[in-house]
Amino acid sequence: MGGASSKASDFDEGAASDVESGDEKLSAEDEIKRVLRFQNNYYKVLKVDPKTCTEASIKKAYYTIARVIHPDKCAHPQSTDAMGVVTSANSTLSNSALRAGYDMYASQVEVDSAGSDSFHQWESKGGANMAHLPPWLVKGLSSPVLGPILMFLIVLLMLSLAVLLFALFIAYFVVHMIFWFLCCFGCCGHCWPRYGEGARLHAKKQERFMRMLQDYEAEAMMAKSKGEDLPNPNVFFANWNVAHPEEEEGEGIPTASAAAGDANKNSYGAIP
Q1: Average pLDDT for residues 82-86, to the nearest whole number?
Q2: How far is 203 from 193, CA to CA, in rounded Å?
């Protein structure tokens, strides 16, 4: 594979010295052929060492090559394509995050092979997700030694999480079914607010609670219109429950208006 270590060994030191020293004039045609031949290997495109190159050396190499193959200065029919590759190599290697992603790509793809995916194709297939990983993890995955070990640990961790989630689901299902059977055969569903008789009783209690709130709101609005203090909620709710006891089966919950004629209660259930 064309990893970072293989790129270092494949680095053309003679070509790099030509770029940095400028003693030998670069041939536009030769440079274009070289760039297009190694278009997936950005380090070879810029003729920089992947282990020692810095942002300054990358920029210097970029300008050195650009002065030779730029379409404004070179009439070669493939100068535009070659210049695009050089520009992409410069923008990628000059950015630390993109460079980490590229190193990951170079460790997984044979970058010197003519039929291999380009960096942008690799990104479009999901490789770009690697750029969101911590730098230390990206660097570790790029290593030919640590990479397989880290991948094995990541897969093992994901499998462990999947097994744990499945176990929790099974435990929830079993406990749920045990309580459901106990409720159905024990109290005929009265204690289970989600099914059968329990659901009906729960809905009835909710209806009673909502009516109590409505009566309190009406009492509060009446007190506010008269300029009086708002009723104490705790006192009102206690009086309301006394004035509206829970009815037996078949009887409805009396509303505030139904209690209006009771001489011992006001219109909203509060006992004077």
Answers
A1: 92
A2: 8
